[in-house]
């Protein structure tokens, strides 16, 4: 007697995919109808993500700390794409201020379906023995605690319809460079926070991933290059297999891909975007 191979009912599979909004499982990064909140969206990688999201059809809100003129410039650029644009202001180290700002952003957008966390502090490079406790505490307050505050405030809004979370991390979490304990610890914490969030929120149809980036063309990277000097900077770049650093736009493209429907089955992951720097050692 021949064995019968049992196959899943395609109607059930189609219904399951539709529940997650996966009617076209391998579609590109079309953000039409999406409401994107970018934490740290006034400059650098956050700015690039905000603009890339708008170019893909999302309405966008940005949260920024202090750079009013830069935030206004981002809003102008988003509106030039024909998308709604809003800005809210808060210090991520302040949990109550972050909660109020994100609630306001959700109200202005009409909800939040995509959250990109791209805020970060520039720490002082020092050994563990020599680092001032105040420098450590401020870095952790913004990079790690700030990420928690943003997730804590935004997740209830995301639960209403499901969505995606993308946190910008750093390869510092794996490279563990000397004199950068605060960066390694904070970003490792962010990545762990994202993995836990992915596990907790999957039942609410929320995906959560992190993008660990290497050196990128931003003001923050320029500050580091200035501190290192031209000789050291050139040596570091030469040590990257692709022999260059990333552009903010390249990072934004990958971030949007990870938040988009083509990655609808990706959650709890950390992707490295570093030109091969980690494998080079």
Question: Can you describe what's shown?
Answer:
This protein has 281 residues and is of the alpha/beta class. The protein has a single domain (29-280), classed as NAD(P)-binding Rossmann-like Domain (Rossmann fold), CATH 3.40.50.720. It is built from 11 helices and 7 strands. The protein has helices at residues 10-19, 44-55, 68-80, 95-109, 133-158, 172-175, 181-201, 219-228, 230-238, 248-259, 277-280; strands at 35-39, 59-64, 85-89, 114-117, 163-170, 206-213, 270-273. It has a 7-stranded parallel β-sheet with strand order 3-2-1-4-5-6-7, with helices on both faces. Helix 2 (44-55) packs across helix 10 (248-259) and helix 5 packs parallel to helix 7 (181-201). The protein is globular and about 50 Å long.
């Amino acid at each position: 007697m021949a064995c019968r191979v049992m196959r899943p009912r395609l109607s059930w599979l189609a219904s399951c995919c539709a529940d997650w909004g996966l009617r076209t499982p391998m579609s590109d990064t079309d953000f039409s109808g999406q409401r994107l909140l970018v934490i740290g969206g006034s400059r650098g990688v956050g700015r690039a993500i905000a603009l890339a999201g708008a170019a893909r059809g999302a309405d966008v809100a940005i949260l920024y700390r202090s750079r009013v003129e830069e935030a206004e410039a981002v809003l102008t650029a988003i509106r030039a794409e024909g998308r709604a644009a809003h800005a809210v202001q808060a210090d991520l180290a302040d949990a109550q201020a972050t909660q109020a700002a994100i609630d306001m952003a959700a109200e202005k957008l009409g909800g939040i379906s995509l959250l990109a966390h791209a805020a970060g502090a520039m720490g002082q490079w020092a050994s563990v023995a020599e680092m001032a406790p105040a420098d450590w505490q401020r870095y952790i307050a913004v990079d790690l605690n700030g990420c928690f505050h943003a997730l804590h405030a935004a997740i209830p809004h995301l639960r209403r319809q499901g969505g995606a979370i993308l946190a910008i991390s750093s390869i510092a979490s794996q490279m563990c460079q000397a004199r950068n304990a605060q960066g390694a610890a904070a970003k490792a914490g962010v990545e762990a926070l994202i993995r836990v969030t992915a596990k907790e929120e999957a039942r609410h149809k929320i995906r959560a991933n992190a993008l660990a980036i290497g050196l990128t063309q931003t003001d923050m990277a320029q500050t580091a290059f200035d501190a290192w000097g031209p000789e050291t900077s050139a040596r570091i770049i030469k040590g990257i297999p692709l022999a260059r650093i990333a552009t903010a736009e390249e990072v934004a493209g990958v971030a949007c891909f990870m938040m988009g429907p083509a990655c609808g089955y990706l959650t709890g992951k950390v992707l490295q975007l570093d030109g091969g720097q980690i494998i080079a050692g």
